[in-house]
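Protocol step 6 of 9: fold each sequence in the batch and record its structure tokens directly after the sequence line. For illustration, a two-sequence batch is reproduced in full.

Sequence one:
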Amino acid sequence: MIIKNTAEVKSLGQTPQRYAKLAFTAWDWGVTDVSAAQDLKTTVAQNFEVLKLEDEMDERIKARSQAEWNKLYAKRAVGLSANSILLLAGAGTIVFVTFNAQVVVYSVYLVSAAPEDWK
């Protein structure tokens, strides 16, 4: 057996025990203040909750059907296309206004200087 990294050595080929690592290494024994200890306790509890939510998320991702994956890819393609079109339209507008600034300024001047019955 070839060992590739230290996590593999610690877990001996099994999935790493994230909960055990957090439980046994989370406490700071240098904490002497009551409020700091309470903050640390809250932090450790939140870290356990985050680990639990990550595990649930991984299970939901693994349980996705091919139709759900296709739906996600379609959403991604539509979003990427829409963003690309908007970026190109914005860049085109900037280029158009830059090259036609004289015409735009002159037309605005003509409209603002026109008699009231022309507007």
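Sequence two, same batch, same settings:
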Amino acid sequence: MTKAALKRLLKSKFFHEVEEVVHAWDYYLTVGDRKLADEMMHKWLMAKLALEYITGIPYGFSRNGETYSIVNELDHDEKLLAGKSAKGKGEEK
């Protein structure tokens, strides 16, 4: 995928929705809402398939309690998205 195509992807409505899903998934995992966390996981799995179809690269969700990210499964140093976890923002319940 070219840098220009990647830039267009990152600005797209589709990617914005993927960001919202990943952020919500992290939040629901943090607050312990299993039902909504599972719903976001299923949405992520559909988005993951679409990202791989669009880019030709398998991406995964990574979370360590402080941050969450969408990472290239072949090169974990390449991230499409990185953010502070809800727990890392002091929203722990």
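Proceed to step 7 once all outputs are recorded. Observation for sequence two: DSSP finds three helices and three strands in the chain.
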